[in-house]
Every structure is written in C-alpha cells, then in structure tokens.
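Record passed on underneath.
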Amino acid sequence: MTPATRIMPSRSVSKKTTEEPEEDDIHVLVPDTTFSRTWALFQRLERDAAANNGRFDGLVVGNVSPADFRRIEMARDRRHPKYRLFFLEDIACAIITVPSKPHEIGQNRLSAFVDRAVYRMGEGVDDSWVAVASTKFQPTGGASSGEGDSAAGPRRGNSDDTTEWPTLVLEVGVSQSMACLRTKSRPESAGQTIRPGATTTRAVARRAVLEPACQQQRRAVLEPACQQQMVISWTGPAPILQTPRHDRAAGLFAVTGAPLILGFEELFLRPPVQAHGEHDIIISASNLQDLASRMWEGVL
C-alpha cells in the first residue's frame, strides 16, 4: 500500500454521486463494492450506468486478486470493450471506468486543448509528441496495470527497455472520487496529470507533477505532488440539474486558481527553445468554463 492511498470500508454509489467530496478524502480510496462474481459485477455496472443518466462513470472494487482481475478483464473484453480497467495488486483493488457522455466530453476536450497548443508550436514540437489514448501500462514484474482516460508524451526519451512512459495523463471523473482519480493518474513516470472531478455543484481540476528525480526511478509507488488546484463552481440557479441542459452556459461557471499551466520541460523532457516559439501550455479560465459547461450539458 502506498503512503498516499488507503482503503476504507465500501460505500454506496448514491452517496458518492450526490455529495461533495471532502478535501480530507483526496487520499482515501473507498471501495464501492467487494468482488464476488464477475457476472454480478457487470450487472451492477450496467444497472448503475443506465439508472444515473450520465452521473455515473465507474466503481472501485475491493477484494480483487490477480486471478479475479484476469477474469474481469476477459469479461470486459467480451461484453464492454470500452470500459477502462485499473488494477492495484498491492491493495487487491480494481477501478472500473464506465465512460459516460460527460466523462468522454471532459477527457476529449482536455486532450483537444493540449493537442491544439502542441500543433501551434510547429512541426518540430508536433512531430516529437505522441498521443497514446487509453493504452494499457503495466510495470515490469507485477500484476498491477492501468488504462488511463487519455495519455501522451514525447516519442522518445522517457522509456525503459520495454515501455515509452507518458508524461501527461488526463483523468476525468463524474461520480468517481478524487482519491480514485489520483490513484489512476500515478503511472511509473508521469510528469503531469490533470484531474477534473464533477459533483452536483462544482468541478475541481488538479495538476500534479512527479519530481524529475522521481521520474528516473519509474516505480508505480511514487505519488505526484499537487502543484495547482482550480475550482469551477456553478453560479446559476440551484440546483443545476433544474436548469435546462443547453442553458448551462460557460459564463455561469466561476473559476478560481486558473490558468492551468503545463510546463513544456515536464511534458517534453527538455527545456523550451523560445526562439522557436516553444513555451508552456496554458489552459485559461475561459477554457475551464467551457469544459464545465460542455460536461454539464451531458448530464441529464
């Protein structure tokens, strides 16, 4: 078990989707259920996804052995190949992401902000950057593995003998807790992660960075340190779900802590050449307002 991740007794999905996450819970990974049978787990996932109209995007499952996880993975591949899996062998825990409409809107919009900025810096930068989407990453010698919402990094220069590790990991959550998103966004050598989490009244975006010395160690137990936190709050009529979806305008969301700054050197593992137009990537307050508005349009 890592110092920053603890397992607590399971709690229900209904509580997680209707309450604000407590700041003290950022490091507390709480299972929603414990594993018994594969068919029962997928029945619950399907039922919760159908019943919550975009406000459900996954479960944390406790008491999962490596053999159990292989069965879950095989069932996922047959029944729901778009589900994303993350397995933590050291704490016998699996995280299953069920991509809902607002979930996918969020991760695609964040990816678009980054991709546009990289492209505008010219061919020299664009040619050295590669997006790997939700590629599965697995540390050497362990059963743990993870599929992020979206990941990217330099085409060369951040690898061991077997894997090109991403420097940017994007994790999005609608019903998933911040602890869940934090856990999923700690690959072996991620330089930066962005984690927006939506609740009934606000979204929180956090940027976490692995220190350069830690990047070289490439151990899954390393925890990125939070560098920035932005809070995006709904300022329109409450509750937000009583506002028609297409009236949840960007201007009705207030942002504190912006802009979100993604360091060029942390992304590309080299200093920027300013004469060539290379620079940090800036995601502005208006970008985050747009992100929140688009995600909430997807919630019924």
